[in-house]
């Protein structure tokens, strides 16, 4: 598979998708202590889906509205934060992909993510 896959948690009004859409998921997670924790877990989930679905030969673009998550994924040193082990695991998964790019998107542009999160409030299972 050639081209790029764009993982976009937050859809921007002024950007166009550059690649193919793989999946969306919505559901409740236990023991999530903060929005940042949820975003770290969501990033790990997407990395796991990409690796398990053999999309490793495509370029992947991760867009996040959390600069803390992006910093954790981009830095070479081990993350010493509370979520460091999850970030380390995510980085390990992403190493099997040929090319990963991380971009920041404004929180104001996350209407798609907001709708998806709202749809998960009533459910108890994941929908992929």
TrEMBL record:
Organism listed in the record: Malus baccata
Cross-referenced Pfam families: RVT_3 (PF13456)
InterPro entries: RNase_H-like, RNase_H-like_dom_plant, RNaseH_domain, RNaseH_sf
Organism superkingdom: Eukaryota
Domain RNase H type-1: 19-119
Protein name: RNase H type-1 domain-containing protein
Annotated GO MF terms: nucleic acid binding; RNA-DNA hybrid ribonuclease activity
């Amino acid at each position: 598979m050639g081209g790029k896959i764009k993982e976009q948690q937050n859809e921007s009004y002024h950007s166009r998708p550059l690649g193919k859409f793989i999946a969306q998921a919505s559901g409740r997670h236990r023991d999530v202590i903060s929005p940042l924790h949820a975003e770290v877990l969501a990033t790990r989930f997407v990395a796991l889906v990409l690796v398990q679905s053999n999309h490793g030969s495509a370029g992947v673009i991760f867009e996040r509205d959390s600069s803390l998550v992006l910093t954790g994924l981009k830095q070479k040193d081990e993350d010493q934060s509370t979520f460091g082990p999850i970030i380390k695991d995510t980085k390990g998964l992403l190493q099997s992909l040929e090319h990963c790019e991380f971009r920041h998107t404004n929180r104001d542009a996350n209407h798609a993510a907001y709708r998806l999160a709202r749809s998960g409030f009533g459910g108890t299972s994941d929908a992929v």
